[in-house]
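Methods — Computational structure assignment.
A single polypeptide chain was analysed. Its primary sequence is given first, followed by the predicted tertiary structure written as C-alpha cells.
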Amino acid sequence: MAKKNGNGTEEPLEKQLWKAADKLRKNIDAAEYKHVVLGLIFLKYISDAFEELFAKLKAEEAQGADPEDKDEYKAENIFFVPQEARWKMLLSKAKQPDIGKFVDDAMDAIEKENASLKGVLPKVYARQNLDPTSLGELIDLVGNIALGDTKARSADVLGHVFEYFLGEFALAEGKKGGQFYTPRSVVELLVDMLEPYQGRVFDPCCGSGGMFVQSEKFVEERKGKINDISIYGQESNQTTWRLCKMNLAIRGIDSSQVKWNNEGSFLNDAHKDLKADYIIANPPFNVSDWGGDLLRKDGRWQYGVPPTGNANYAWIQHFLYHLAPNGQAGFVLAKGSLTTKTSGEGDIRKALVENNLIDCIVNLPAKLFLNTQIPASLWFMNRNRTNGKFRDRSKDILFIDARNLGYLINRRTKELSQEDILKIAETYHNWRNPDGRYEDIAGFCASTPIYKVAELDYVLTPGRYVGLPDDEDDFNFNERFTALKAELDEQLKEEARLNDIIATNLSKIKL
C-alpha cells in the first residue's frame, strides 16, 4: 500500500496514514487527538481478530460451534466484540451526525464484555470539538489499514501503525509527549544491549509500553519463543497506562501484570516481591517531588539514602532491589548522575562501583529526548558479573562515548541510526562475551579497571576514560562562573561609562 512521494520513492503505509489522519485534526490538539486515533486503531484490531474467529466458528455451526459464544473467544485469548461494536457496524454509521455517540457506546460495550479492558478504552468521540464528518473520514481511513494484507497479518500491521502513531504524537506534543514515549531508537538500543531472551522483564515506569513491545520483537526476530518472557510494569499516569494496555493488547502481549496507581513505584510498589531477570526503564530525570522524605528508612536503600530533592539514585536502588541474583538492568538517567556529589549521591555511586554492580556506561548524543534537553546516559548493571553466562568482568567497567552518533530528524530532535545501535550494542557484546573480539577505540570506548575509576573519585563520565580530551567533561563550573562574572562586570562598567558620556553630551546641548 506504499505510494510514490515527491522524490519518486515509495512512502510507507504508516506515513501515508499519519498525514491523512493529521489533516483531519483541525482544531483538536495532538494530546487529545491521539486518544481519538489510537482508540480507533485498537477498535479495528480487536474487531479484525474477532471477525476472523467469528467466520471460522460460523463455518463450523453444523458441527455445533456457536459464533456468539463468548467462551469460544476467551479460549483463544481473543476479545469478544458485541454486535453494536463491530467494525462493520461502525463503518455503516460513519456518515451519520451522531457517529461519535456510536463509537463511545461501542467502547463501553467492549469494556463490559472484557474485564481486562475495564477503564482502559477512550470515550472521547461524542465531544463537541470533534467534527462528526472528520470522525467518519477517520473511521474510513483506519478501516483501510489492513487492505492488501491477510487478516492473520493485520494485527502486526495495526501494531506497527499504533507504534508509529505513538511516536508521531509524541513529536507533535513535544515536551509533554516525552512523558509517555521513549524514542524508539533508545528503546531498541537498550533491548539490543540487554538481549532479554528468557525470564521476567520489568519496567516500573513503563509509559506507553515501548520497552515491552521491543523486548517481544527482539525475541521474535531471533526465532525465540514469545512465551519465554513475561512482563511486569507499573505506571503512575492513568492516561498513559491506558495507552500502554492498548499498545500491548494490539500485539497480543499479556498485560495483566502492568499495574497503575497514582502514587507511583516509590510510595506504592505494585510488585514488591518481584525479582526480575531484566529491568529496562526510562525513569523521569531529576524528579524532586518523589516522596523521599517519607522513605528515609526504606529497605531499598542498601547503598545509601538518596536525597529527597532528586530521585535518580532512588531509581537506581529501586531497580537493584527488584533484580534477581543473576539479573541485569539497563536504564536511562540524566548525565549529571555520573558525576554528582550532592547530598550523598557521590557516596552511593562509590558503593555501587565497589560492590561490583556497574557493567557499562554509555554517553548518549544530545537531542534524543522529546521532553528534555538534559544530556542523558545509559547505565547497565548486573547482580552477578562473574556468572558463567558471560566472562568475568568484575575488575572492569566498559565506557562508551556515543555523543557523536545519531542524526537530526528535525531541528530539535535526533535519532540513532540502525548502524549506530549496532555499533554500540556489538561493542558491549564483544566486551562481555567470552569469545568477543573487543578492543578499546580512542574517543569511543574503553574497558577501564575499577582502581582507575576509584582514582578519578568514582566519576563515571565516559569522556574521562575513552582516551581523548573532552572540554565538556572537564567543565569547571567555578572557573566558568568567575569568567562570566568578570565579563558581566566589564559590560556594566562599559555601560556606565557610555551613560556618563550621554549624560554629559545632553547637559552640553541644554546649555
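Note: The mean pLDDT is 88.
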